[in-house]
């Protein structure tokens, strides 16, 4: 008997049909297409999300580029404050007036009823002198005070021989004291009568007394290039005595609402002039021409070119130029 084989559809290739190996590649081909699809660019409807991501990346790159060229600086915010220009010079305290009392005759000092520091009034008895010599009739000569004041010096004692050339006493009006000093001539144009003065005394530490200039000498000392000045206290303090050493501060100029920065913040250039660096709202350094006023104690007054509230670079100013991005020191809120 002849056996007939049953043909199962697809079990053997027909004309133009792929062979068994080709059929096995279908699953692999599908997987590859799926992977490629996942790696393709954005599909329709996904554009905005990926566009934002691209902008974010570009922004991050920009920030990184900016940070690379950013300079860290310290700033101060301009605010009005009191600034004074002054001259510190020593002075000596002396009575406003004093007199030396001389005897009108020579002789022995018999009586001296006073001590140094005693107060006397005009015509009060100071001493008695016996001008007589051996064999002569005894007589006394009285010496009286020519002014009211305080006895500041008594160089003799009872029994001393008095002559006409040496004063018997020195009397001073200690109620009114004055300070004497010498001012360098280069400051005289800035000083006049009634110029305010602050006085400090080693004998009374921690206290400050007010004074003013009352007189200036009409002549300058050609050797020291100074001019003599006399100052007076505005209020009398009994603790202050003649002979005390004083430290005076003469106020040459006062600005109650000055815009002040450290002197180092001001840059002076032979071509570009005088300027500072201001930090703008975008945190960039901006070169600003300025004019200065008082400069003292490491501070400089900015009179023109800046305004209250602006931020001035006070550290790092030598490492920036106009337009340089800057970063403020952490915690710098001045």
Automatic annotation (TrEMBL):
Pfam families: Beta-barrel_RND_2, BSH_RND, YknX_C
Residue stretches making up the Multidrug resistance protein MdtA-like barrel-sandwich hybrid domain: 98-164
InterPro entries (alphabetical): Beta-barrel_RND_2, MdtA-like_BSH, RND_pump_MFP, YknX-like_C
Residue stretches making up the CusB-like beta-barrel domain: 180-250
UniProt superkingdom: Bacteria
Domain YknX-like C-terminal permuted SH3-like, residue spans: 258-327
GO cellular component, one term: efflux pump complex
Region (Disordered) residue spans: 1-22, 41-68
Entry GO MF terms: efflux transmembrane transporter activity
Biased composition regions of type Basic and acidic residues, renumbered to the chain: 59-68
Membership in a protein family: Belongs to the membrane fusion protein (MFP) (TC 8.A.1) family.
PANTHER family noted in UniProt: HLYD FAMILY OF SECRETION PROTEINS, MULTIDRUG RESISTANCE PROTEIN MDTA
Name assigned to this protein: Uncharacterized protein
Organism encoding this protein: Alkalispirochaeta sphaeroplastigenens
Phylogenetic lineage: Bacteria, Pseudomonadati, Spirochaetota, Spirochaetia, Spirochaetales
């Amino acid at each position: 008997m002849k056996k007939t084989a049953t043909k199962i559809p697809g079990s053997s290739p027909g004309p133009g049909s792929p062979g068994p190996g080709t059929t096995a590649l279908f699953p692999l081909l599908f997987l590859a297409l799926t992977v490629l699809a996942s790696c393709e660019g954005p599909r329709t409807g996904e554009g905005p999300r990926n566009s934002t991501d691209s902008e974010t990346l570009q922004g991050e790159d920009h920030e990184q580029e900016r940070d690379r060229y950013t300079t860290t600086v310290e700033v101060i915010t301009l605010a009005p404050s009191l600034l004074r220009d002054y001259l510190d010079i020593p002075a000596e305290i002396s009575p406003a007036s004093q007199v030396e009392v001389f005897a009108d005759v020579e002789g022995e000092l018999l009586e001296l009823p006073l001590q140094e520091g005693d107060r006397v009034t005009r015509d009060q008895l100071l001493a008695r002198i016996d001008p007589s010599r051996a064999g002569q009739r005894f007589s006394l000569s009285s010496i009286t005070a020519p002014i009211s004041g305080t006895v500041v010096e008594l160089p003799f004692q009872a029994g001393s021989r008095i002559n006409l050339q040496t004063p018997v006493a020195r009397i001073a009006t200690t109620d009114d004291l004055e300070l004497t000093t010498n001012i360098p001539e280069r400051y005289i144009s800035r000083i006049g009568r009634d110029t305010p003065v602050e006085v400090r005394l080693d004998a009374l530490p921690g206290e400050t007394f007010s004074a003013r200039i009352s007189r200036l000498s009409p002549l300058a000392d050609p050797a020291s290039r100074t001019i003599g000045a006399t100052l007076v206290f505005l209020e009398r303090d009994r603790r202050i005595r003649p002979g005390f050493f004083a430290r005076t501060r003469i106020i040459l100029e006062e600005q109650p609402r000055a815009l002040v920065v450290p002197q180092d913040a001001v840059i002076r250039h032979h071509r570009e002039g005088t300027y500072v660096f201001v930090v703008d709202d975008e945190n960039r350094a901006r070169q600003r021409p300025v004019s200065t006023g008082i400069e003292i104690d490491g501070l400089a007054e900015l009179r023109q070119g800046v305004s209250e509230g602006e931020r001035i670079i006070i550290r790092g100013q030598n490492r920036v130029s106009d337009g340089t991005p800057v970063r403020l020191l952490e915690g710098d809120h001045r």
